[in-house]
Specification:
single chain; 598 residues; alpha+beta; 11-stranded mixed β-sheet; 8-stranded antiparallel β-sheet; disordered C terminus
């Protein structure tokens, strides 16, 4: 059977997974009796809740006499390293671009990798039904981006379509009467090269991602470049440096729609899953010939952010979770390393803590959220940027940030970015809305999102992705406000919180259990403030005008894990349990302790 391999790439929320849904429905992946949902490739619970794709996933459909392997890739920059590896397994990409927003940071990042490999993308301008859509302008913007990224003449002559992925419609022109995705299927057949199927050469494949099965263990997922292999065959695993070890293929799986189907043979050109090699890793070559050359190494981007995972030692430790010890946390992190190749875990000698490094705050917060749902209790420190030193010079990671705001907030945003060492690269205003492009240190973006939302009244959109490492840009200003810290243990009362809300922003509601050293709000001053959130109103038999005012509390928005990680300072921790997310001081100051003892 002929095989075509294609990946779908786009910035977050431009409609990749919705388009895959439509391709599966119209490609006959479901029987007549099957119920078909939405965002079916987002199978993980967090993916469904957050509305983003976190893990790259394979699926396949049959069109005419051809099998089309489709890879749905993450759109968020924190998971961009997954996309880079997937590109090596396919022969073309579908580049999805929003008809209103145009190319965004992740679009640029992934497209650059595609062009460098030599792929010829097919561009799909999605969401042409938006009231503010500007599809032809976006086609020009995509062409300019191709040109800026150094595309050759063949790549610049890209094919493009217009689509409404939500309705499963693709059109060659804006006034095309098409009512389904047939134009897209035909374009894939026309523009995506057939996978080369050399069955005579010795078997060679390279895992581009990893899966895990509690029964089968680690599973290598990748493309078979040459030859065939059957279940039970003995193979050799080669590292990029040529080191070789023996292994055996236990089971082989392929994607059929959303199902994983077991097959007895893997053939050249197909994307398959192989189980039976317990220590297989991304980028290694699996081959039937001990003397075969290993395939070119796959690069895995180094982490840019790290944080400490600590055992929970707060006064409420062990009350809400079931997995609370160092042993539990270590085993869970080791298991995560099996499949999460962008993660680094380092045990810190002589302590109950682990240094965990990843590609960004979201990358690590997804892991923390998974752990708390599994019953873990732990504490995590403030995210820190990973610096590099080369030839005596300190280098730090830089990000491309694209900001869309109403024109009225231009000055505010420019001031915010300037204080964070941001360098403006571009600025354009159309119809009262401005798009600004900055190059800014990753350090400058840590903790910025909350302030950005407040300063732009929730109307601004901030997107960013890693570019490169550059010389250290100097010190940045830290958080300008202190914290409100509880000086006692107990349950908050409305009267105390009513008095405290004048002194800052509260994070808690009445009848919340707190302990000494727990952060209950943000002070309006630069210093930390020790407060008593349990102080009740003194009762007397005297009545006077104004003594019985109504207690009106400002509504409190519960803090999410990402907001908590952005808020905390260097001397603060986030306590994460299945039931709550709390903020606390690492150590109480001596004068605060004496005051609470009095």
């Amino acid at each position: 059977m002929k095989i075509r391999n294609v990946a779908i790439i786009a910035h977050v929320d431009h409609g990749k997974t919705t388009l895959v849904d439509a391709l599966l429905k119209q490609g006959g992946a479901f029987a007549a009796h099957e119920t078909v949902g939405e965002l079916m490739m987002d199978s993980n619970a967090q993916e469904k809740e957050r509305g983003i794709t976190i893990y790259a996933k394979n699926t396949s459909i049959k069109y005419k006499d051809c099998k089309v392997n489709i890879v749905d890739t993450p759109g968020h920059a924190d998971f961009g390293s997954e996309v880079e590896r997937i590109l090596r397994t396919v022969d073309s990409v579908l580049l999805l671009v929003d008809a209103q927003e145009g190319p965004m940071p992740q679009t640029k990042f992934v497209l650059k990798k595609s062009l460098e490999i030599g792929l010829k993308p097919i561009v799909i301008i999605n969401k042409i039904d938006k009231p503010a859509a500007r599809p032809m302008q976006v086609v020009d913007m995509v062409f300019d981006l191709f040109s800026a990224l150094g595309a050759n003449d063949e790549q610049l002559d890209f094919a493009y379509l217009f689509a409404i992925a939500r309705e499963g419609i693709a059109r060659k022109t804006l006034d095309d009467p098409s009512t389904d995705l047939t134009p897209l299927f035909d374009l894939i057949m026309e523009r995506v090269p057939e996978a080369q199927q050399n069955f005579t050469a010795p078997f060679r494949m390279q895992p581009s991602s990893l899966g895990y099965d509690s029964y089968l263990g680690r599973i290598g997922i990748g493309r078979v470049y040459e030859g065939t292999v059957k279940a039970g065959d003995k193979v050799f695993v080669k590292k990029p440096d040529g080191e070789t070890r023996a292994g055996k293929v236990a089971k082989i799986f392929v994607s059929q729609g959303l199902k994983r189907a077991e097959v007895q043979e893997a053939i050249a050109g197909d994307i398959v899953m192989i189980a039976g090699i317990p220590d297989i890793y991304v980028g290694e070559t699996i081959t039937a010939d001990e003397n075969a050359e290993p395939l070119p190494a796959l690069s895995i981007d180094p982490p840019t952010i790290s944080m400490l995972f600590l055992v929970n030692n707060s006064p409420f430790a062990g009350k809400e979770g079931t997995l609370v010890t160092t042993r539990h946390i270590k085993a869970r992190l080791e298991k995560e390393k099996e499949t999460n190749v962008g993660l680094r875990v380092e045990e810190i000698p002589g302590s109950d803590s682990y240094k965990v490094s990843g590609r960004g705050e979201l990358h690590l917060s997804v892991l923390i959220e998974d752990m708390r749902r599994e019953g873990f209790e732990l504490q995590v420190s403030r995210p820190e940027v990973i610096m590099r030193e080369e030839g005596g010079t300190l280098f730090e990671p830089m990000e491309q940030a694209i900001i869309d705001v109403p024109e009225a907030y231009n000055g505010t945003v420019i001031d915010m970015m300037a204080r964070r060492k941001g360098e403006m690269l571009d600025m354009r205003t159309e119809n009262g809305h401005t798009r600004m492009e900055f190059k800014v240190p990753t350090r400058g973006l840590l903790g910025m999102r909350g302030d950005f939302i407040i300063e732009t009244r929730g109307e601004g959109i901030l997107s960013h992705s890693f570019i490169n490492y550059e010389p250290f840009k100097g010190e940045l200003p830290g958080r300008t406000r202190g914290s409100m810290i509880s000086m006692a243990t107990g349950e908050t009362v409305a009267f105390a919180l009513w008095n405290l809300q004048e002194r800052g922003k509260l994070f808690l509601i009445p009848q919340t259990k707190v302990y000494e050293g727990m952060i209950i709000g943000e002070s309006s001053k630069s210093e930390d403030l020790s407060v008593n959130p349990m102080k009740e109103k003194k009762l007397t038999n005297m009545r006077a005008s104004g003594s019985d005012e109504a207690i009106l509390l400002t509504p409190v928005q519960p803090m999410t894990l990402e907001q908590a990680l952005e808020y905390i300072a260097d001397d603060e921790l986030v306590e994460v349990t299945p039931a709550a997310i709390r903020l606390r001081k690492k150590h109480l100051k001596e004068n605060d302790r004496k005051r609470s003892e009095r």
